[in-house]
Design goal:
Blueprint: H1 8-27, E1 31-33, E2 39-41, H2 47-61, H3 63-89, H4 99-106, H5 110-138, H6 143-167, H7 173-193, H8 195-211
Antiparallel strand pairs: 1-2
Length: about 210
């Protein structure tokens, strides 16, 4: 594997993925009435970045490195959430009138946090594990099978876990299932359509790593 030595490119990928994860969890509470009747969270806007990095790292660097990257992303998100909660508790001056708006955006409910954390940890690991296991069966061929197959498995788990944990009892359960299916369908469809870009990203990272 290409992770035997220090790689600045790997560091960049992990940092970019972690930032995208933190931002996506901030905006995940906003629901989006997307085209074609889909119900999504606005966090799906960052899915293209998260998805490509989530495929490139296990494909190029292996499952062990992918798991470490997932834990780093989790730690970054937890760090951000802790400081958000601390900031919300600090007293504001009397002339500042934006405390309630600040709470709406950054005042995560415990269920939203638990749902996000559990869905990310389990879904990301399922995605990486599935990609690597399919590669063991197919060899370096059929990258599209690995990327789409891993998305079907990992993002299916992620979508249903997050929606069920975070929104059951808050919105009708039929809407929870609709949101889960919409998110899963969106991510899987995007994966299929973006396969050429995934090939380009994987090949580019392999080329850069091989030349270092």
């Amino acid at each position: 594997m290409l992770h035997k030595r220090f790689s600045i490119l790997l560091v960049i990928l992990v940092v970019l993925g972690s930032v995208a994860l933190v931002v996506s969890n901030i905006i995940a509470g906003k629901l989006w009435a997307a085209p074609f009747g889909l119900i999504l969270t606005t966090a799906e806007l960052l899915f293209p970045i998260v998805y490509i990095i989530g495929d490139v790292i296990p494909e190029v660097y292996g499952l062990q490195t992918a798991r470490r990257a997932i834990l780093i992303g989790f730690a970054a998100n937890l760090f951000a959430v802790i400081f958000f909660l601390i900031c919300l508790q600090l007293p504001a001056p009397g002339f500042w009138t934006n405390q309630e708006a600040f709470k709406i955006v950054l005042g995560f409910t415990p269920r939203l946090l638990v749902g996000s954390f559990i869905a990310y940890l389990i879904g990301s690991n399922v995605n990486a594990w599935t990609l690597v296991k399919i590669k063991e069966l197919t060899g370096p061929r059929f990258l599209w099978v690995r990327t789409i197959g891993s998305t079907i498995a990992g993002e299916g788990v992620d979508s249903f876990l997050f929606a069920i944990i975070a929104f059951t009892g808050v919105i009708p359960f039929s809407a929870v299932i609709a949101m889960s299916l919409s998110t899963w369908a969106f991510k899987t469809s995007y994966e299929a359509l973006a396969t050429p870009f995934t090939y380009l990203a994987v090949n580019w990272v392999k080329k850069i790593e091989a030349s270092i």
